Sequence to fold (350 residues):
Amino acid sequence: MYSCCDNGYSEVSVRNKKTKEVYALDMEKGVSFENNGAIYRVNEDGILTKYDKNTGDWVKCDEILMTQYQWDVFRAVADNKIEKDDRPVLSKQDINSAIDMYSNGELTTDLGEHISTGYKIKKTRSYSSNSAFSTYVTNGKQRQSAELVFKYGTQEDALTISDFVQSNEVDNDYVPKNNTKIKRTGNLKLPSKMSPSDNAYKIIKKYETLVLYTYDDLDKSNPKKFIKKGMKYKGTLTNGYGHTKGVKPGQTITKKQAEKYLRDDVDEAVKTVQGSVKVKLKQNEFDALVSFVYNVGPGAFKCSTLLKCLNSGDFDGAAGQFGRFVYSKQRRLRGLVIRREQERKMFVGK
Fold:
């Protein structure tokens, strides 16, 4: 449970999933915390809320669920100098302090010195011009790990940083074993010697609907509405075949220009695949990856587990990663679910 105080802090309960033990701490209004994908925030009314990805709303939440090692890093960031019997605090000052320590080189790889349980708390970093603090947590086992992100600001700030983190996965040093099940016979080439086939352009055009003017890619109430100068928009300004670079309100383009933008954007995706993938590919695999990178962007691909699986030779594992990239602004989109499945099928040769 939680209770609101007049001093700008709210008492919040954190429950240990394994032991069922409940801890109480004070969280300052406006503080948000992402626990391995679940986003919690104490709102302006002092109420603990959790973001519902299905509805896009912040809903009242009674407690925060954590594993033991997640709680350890939470305490370490909140206040690692707590006197005995005092309740831990998570505030804007604590987050800024952690960011400052990171910036000064004090939290470069391991926060383990701040706790006594022996859990490894590593890959500490700050985001977005030092506006948020993140650390990667693991107890050394492959499947027991998480990324914890701390931020102070508005509800939109909490979602923005969460969306950024989601598109830049943390490398947890785990390299999958080569358990390839996909039959990979035929002509294999290094990506540096490959070019996209017509199939790559076809799948991109199929899911990137041609629009010859500027629109908001997240406006579901009035999709493909012409965004003119001075109009407000929620998502990313887009035209052509999902082209976003340099797009401004009020622009119109020709089909010829849209085709040029498509070629330019595909070329960028091709260069990303060529420069990142270190194993030989079949043409269908290369085409699927080009379409994937065209949609999710070079940054997300370069930091992805999908790429790690590829470069370790685990093509079956890589195929299983496509379905993870179906969110935009923390919302699961049916169109992306369908597209990822089509790209996965192309990748495995179906």
Observations:
- Residues 22 and 269 are 48 Å apart (CA to CA).
- Residues 255-276 form the longest helix (22 residues).
- The chain is about 30% helix and 25% strand.
- The longest strand covers residues 9-16.
